[in-house]
Amino acid sequence: MRIFVSAAIAIMIGSVHAGAQSAPASSFPPDSEIRKVLVQRIDDFHQNVGIVVGVIDSQGRRVIEYGSLDQGDPRPLTGDTVFEIGSITKVFTSLLLSDMVQRGEVKLDDPISKYLPDGSKAPEHDGKQITLVDLSTHTSGLPRLPTNFKPKDAGNPYAYYTTAQLYEMISAYQLTRDPGAQFEYSNLGGGLLGNLLSRRAGMDYEALVKERITGPLGMKSTGITLSPDMRSRLAVGHDAELKAVPNWDIPALAGAGALRSTVNDMLIFLAANLGYVQSPLAPAMAAMRATRRTTGTPAVGGEIGLGWLFMKTATGEFAWHNGGTGGYRSFVGYDLTSRSGVVILSNTSTAAGVDDIGRHLLDANLPLMSPPKQHTEISLDPKVFDNYVGQYQLAPNFIITISREDGQFFAQATAQPKFQIYAEGPTNFFLKVVDAQITFQTDTSGRATNLTLHQNGRDLPGKRIP
Q1: pLDDT tens digits for 421-464?
Q2: 217 in helix, strand or coil?
Q3: Is 69 a member of any domain?
Q4: What's the angle, vertex CA 434, arms to CA 348 and CA 462, rounded to 5?
Q5: Which of 57, 197, 253, 428 is the least buried, fewest Cβ under 10 Å from its Cβ?
């Protein structure tokens, strides 16, 4: 589900960026203009609680912020505010892989069976084995989530998933295609890669990241464990309805999304990737860009390297990745041609996140999101809605669960928060937090047999399942 922003923003920042292009002083608009976007996103459209933007180019680094650490919290956001960065963690995991290759500790084409614990088995397909590079490029053939992943706490879904369960699932899983044959984004694969590299290095994932990446780069506010100082600077996470939610703990799949960081630390990371600072990781960072596989998914970019996705532009391409947990969304990207980079951290979790701002700052031809269509809510008898309560399968790994709590109606997609939906007709509903609508198809008794999700110009049908 995507959040769409007013076209007024797209026009405003687009024209500003065009002006900035004529002034060679910076690759980006002035701070005041970037802040206007944040103000509108937070105050006018109520889609975020707090956002911090960091930009870096040949003119140096800048931090632009707006909003608050929590609703009603008077403390200002800064470049040192701590956020969960979610799947941007995978970039760090792949950098560990690339660095270990540079050191001769592993090879990209090593089969994962070489690093599994005794008693575990690696899945194969027609005799072909999953390799480390398959995990890094999301071409392993493993699903997005473990098949035995059954969260005990929806507010902290990964907290109780164990390493033992991970290796049990891997040993039992049957691949449906050859490893390396197809891109399919996998949190499972990212988490497994982090585990295997940690086993090879003989230390836990957080310690490995500190020893090989954050320590050498001087990123003192990036890690998993929150020190008292980091906790004092932690922005409170919020869901798409701007309600405070718990932080996530991701012990077994840490390499997929467990890191926390700040904009200032991520600007250090970007400076190293762009070559503005000397780093022993430079060869490994270059190798991350050199290893490419196709994604077949233009929406995320045509290619993926080790960890980084690559989006084509009129002048070249930029590398990027985003992230999201229960209460946070993040974006990081950089363009080697212009030697510019962007990081955006937000303490509100929405399906669309802040990706559009980051992509637009890197390439003015990529627009900000359009405004959602206006919908009028009507009253609906809850007894009518009870005919729609159930689960609807839109894809093998994508189910929408429809539920009712008292007089309120909800929809929850696989691995996403539960959002309230509002009736605009007997069988037509809309969401306020995203530009998406749901239509139910019913039988002669009024019981729903199917639903259709309308989003991003697409109509996705789903059949009701037991």
Answers
A1: 999 999 999 998 777 899 999 999 999 999 999 987 789 999 99
A2: helix
A3: no
A4: 120
A5: 428
Q: Which residues pair with 465 in a beta bridge?
A: 391
Considering the domain architecture, whether residues 253 and 145 belong to the same structural domain is answered as yes
Q: Which structural domain range is residue 104 located in? A: 83-362
Q: Which two tokens stand for residue 211?
A: 């020893």
Q: Whole-angstrom Cα distance, residue 97 to residue 413? A: 32
Q: Which residues make Cβ contacts (< 8 Å) with residue 320, sequence separation at least 6?
A: 301, 308, 309, 310, 311, 331, 332, 333, 334, 358, 359, 362
Distance CA 352, CA 350 (A): 5
Both tokens of 398, joined, read: 């994508």
Co-location of 289 and 210 in the same domain: yes
Cα–Cα distance for residue pair 128/188, rounded to 1 Å: 19
Domains in the chain, number: 2
Residue 251 has what DSSP assignment? S
Residue 356, domain CATH: 3.40.710.10
Residues 179 and 115 in one domain: yes
Widest CA span in the chain: 70
Higher pLDDT, 373 or 454: 454
Residue 361, SS3 per DSSP: helix
198 and 300 share one domain: yes
Q: How far, in Å, CA of 439 to CA of 454, rounded?
A: 8
Contact 90, 319 (CB under 8 A): no
Residue 417 vs residues 236, 259, 392: alpha-carbon distances, Å: 17, 20, 16
DSSP symbol at 200: H
Q: Which of 26-35, 244-253, 261-270 has the lowest mean pLDDT?
A: 26-35
Whole-number Å distance between alpha carbons of 48 and 315: 32
Give the burial class of 309: count Cβ atoms within 10 A of its Cβ; 0-12 exposed, 13-18 middle, 19 or more buried.
buried
Flag whether 177 is in a domain: yes
Helix (H, G, I), strand (E, B) or coil at 97: helix
